[in-house]
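REQUEST ID: PR-0412
SUBMITTED BY: lab tech R.K.
PRIORITY: routine
TASK: structure prediction, single protein chain
INPUT:
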Amino acid sequence: MTTHGADRCAPPVPPFTQALEEAVGTAALSPSSHNCQPWGLARVTTAAARRTAAELTGEDADEYLVLALDRGRELTALAAHAVEMEVSCGIYGRILLRGLAARGWTVASVRVLDGDAPIRGGGSRFGAGWPARWTPLCVVALRPGTPSGEGPADLRETALARRTHRGAYRPEPVPAELLRDLAGTVSPDGERDLIRVRHLTEPQELRAFASFVARHAGRDFGHRAAWRETHSFLRRDLADATARGDGFTPDQLFGPMSRPRRAALRCALAPATMRLLGKVGYHRVLAAGLADLVRRTPAMVTMGFAGPEPGRAELLRGGERLADYWWRATRHGLSLHPVSIVVQHDDLRGRLERELSLPGRTFFVSRVGAAERPAPRSHRRDDAARCVPV
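STATUS: complete
OUTPUT:
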């Protein structure tokens, strides 16, 4: 993209290194399942890697970035986690590119790497410096242009304000015009129908969904591998979460509590304890508690892919759409709480789609509303804002 006469008064585009450092710092605050932060980012710098990136994108650009999935950090206990991980990477990528666009670095081309791109020399596409556990998802070509008009400071402020709020929401309905605005947000390339968005606001819809959660959400609590993986991200307390830089604390799940209660709860949620308590129906008690939260929530949002078997491009697009929705909702004072349990098993997801007539292949379901109290923020790893040169 080139600048025109009308843009001569626009502020100068900062050096890419500076713009990237600032944008990555904001993107690192993106949400992910269990706060596992499964993304990786590489800046293409060597001559050979730049030639590969140019071939893949069809652009002789100033800069190239590669968005990746870090297989060392992904969730794997359930097949559905593969979708969640790439959607999480799509969220991160969208916020990153919005941050760069706000600083005047615009996207010239994107190539999604869906298994069809040639591999130079039979090894890694991007040379020996490519991290062994990273799977490249897409290559982005960038060049300096006109800033998008979105304030970098505003984007950063919203990223810091965004929360996954699992507590009670105010009972007041979310204004219908605001929900229409959130549902009508176009995708990054201007297409509206690639991701299907629906809000559930009618009392009978919310009761039906709460009933579904009460009947079926216990499966995830009782799934040994899935719960063991979930529990591995449960941090002892704030100090533990700060030191590790990922996961979540009991306070984030259940609100502020004393140290003895926190320790007792963590013991009760341990996989071995859950197996024993599951024999007397404890998983159904947990499901009923989640259903009660849903029942008292003013709105639910669902997102679905248009087709039943989304490819990598659709998965990343879903993350982009979710990022825009969540950031705009945050700007309007709304919080989200994903209820992922109902879409993590294919049979349950299909049943939910049929019972509630949900459009598309559902990949995201969340409570939406104004939280009654602030939620603690999630922590990030020291290297979450790292960009690897290749």
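NOTES: Strands lie at 39-43, 63-70, 105-112, 134-144, 195-200, 299-305, 335-338, 361-369, 388-389.
REVIEWED BY: pending
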